[in-house]
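User: Here's a chain of 153 residues. Predict its fold as tokens.
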Amino acid sequence: MDVSFQTFNFFTIEKYMGAWDSGVFDNDDAADWMNELAAAHGLEILSNAIYAVLNAADYIEAPEGSRFLCTCEVIVAFSGNPSTNLPDDVRQWVKNHEALDTSKLIPVALQAIDRILGDNSELKQLWEENEQDYPAWHETVLSIKRRLHGLLQ
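Assistant: Prediction complete.
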């Protein structure tokens, strides 16, 4: 009996992006991005992920969407209130780079997050195919949006 899919149905998601849970960092694209983050020393990795979404012509591919959501979690972590689901390596990176000012990235991240929630987002489409787990993913993205918005006040 295959128990790997009993509690979390990832057939579609796993097929396309290697997800093992609905969290922002729970997929292969996020893992690849975290490896890139470990080697980064400035904000370029964050701004690149944001502008990849903002500047996408029509359709946002899943890898770009996943990297962008990771970036948003890092921006929120710089505020001193990281997600409880933030991986330890990412938490340490933020601590090691606490002098970086991410405040200018917040407004553009908020613009881009609506594109991830829009109809031309492959990431959203893949999660929608998983009716059981889409609500949890969607709430995670809305939570990120609320936390980013709270940083503007």
